[in-house]
Automatic annotation (TrEMBL):
One of its GO terms (molecular function) is kinase activity. This is GTP pyrophosphokinase YwaC. The gene is ywaC. InterPro entries: GTP_Pyrophosphokinase, NT_sf, RelA_SpoT. Residues 52-175 form the RelA/SpoT domain. SMART domains: RelA_SpoT. It comes from Oceanobacillus oncorhynchi. It holds the Pfam family RelA_SpoT. The keyword NAD does not apply.
Length: 221
């Protein structure tokens, strides 16, 4: 009897985790379409790279304990909204908002929550745009809504966040004050770089548009 029970639990867990995998597959397809469309039509790709991940059952349980969430499928599904996550890395800050609008404009996607840590950075300097989305997944016998967390950031924000994440884990959350200070300073430097790059990007685009308008004028009799 116990073996039957265990098999049933394992099947249930597999179905649960699969729903997130399918949700991620759907969003990844949408993002691939956007990328290809941009490359072919606009001759430009706002996405530098993207990465998706599904939290392991162990990490889900750890988060439940940390946040005092009861360990039932329903409660985990409703309270842990980053079981499936995608990180989109762009070259320029303006691309972040363009991509966010394109995603939010898709009919089958519901936006549950937006956290703009670019306009309102965390005290340590963390910047990124977070969206919690809900997307329908169609199974053979039912339809399910799953939450997906999308983090959109620039290359510089990503560089900073991955180093900060490593340092945070190395010191088990108790990062020495001088390192916290250094990290905040480097977040400011990363931000300055982003602003400079955005400025150059706008200049280049304006120059391109002027050239385009000029060549149109040359066609006039
Ligand atoms: P991992 O390993 O990247 O998945 P919650 O999601 O409920 O724990 P909160 O505050 O509601 O917490 O979520 P928030 O602020 O949207 O942050 C969730 C994720 O954003 C984190 O996931 C990180 O990936 C990233 N993040 C947030 N703050 C920081 C930060 O200060 N530094 C870095 N490097 N990343 C950050 P996880 O689950 O913590 O980690």
């Amino acid at each position: 009897k116990q073996i039957h029970q265990l098999t049933a639990v394992r099947k249930e867990l597999t179905r649960f985790m699969l729903s997130y995998k399918f949700g991620l597959d759907e969003i990844n397809t949408k993002l691939n379409i956007l990328q290809e469309e941009f490359e072919h039509i606009h001759d430009y790709n706002p996405i530098e790279h993207l990465k998706s991940r599904i939290k392991t059952p162990e990490s889900i349980l750890r988060k439940c304990q940390r946040k005092n969430i009861s360990i039932t499928q329903k409660s985990i599904k409703n309270h842990i909204k980053d079981i499936a996550g995608i990180r989109i890395v762009c070259s320029f800050i303006s691309d972040i908002y363009k991509i966010s609008e394109m995603i939010q404009g898709q009919q089958d996607i519901k936006v549950i929550e937006t956290k703009d840590y670019i306009k309102h950075p965390k005290p340590n300097g963390y910047k990124s745009l977070h969206l919690i989305l809900s997307i329908p997944v169609f199974f053979s016998d039912r339809q399910e809504e799953v939450f997906i967390e999308i983090q959109i950031r620039t290359v510089a924000m990503d560089f900073w966040a991955s180093l900060e994440h490593k340092i945070y884990y190395k010191y088990d959350g108790e990062v020495p004050a001088h390192l916290v200070e250094e990290l905040t300073t480097s977040a400011n430097i990363a931000n300055q770089l982003d602003e400079k790059m955005e400025f150059l990007h706008t200049e280049i685009n304006e120059a391109k548009e002027d050239k385009h308008a000029e060549s149109k004028l040359n066609f006039l009799p």
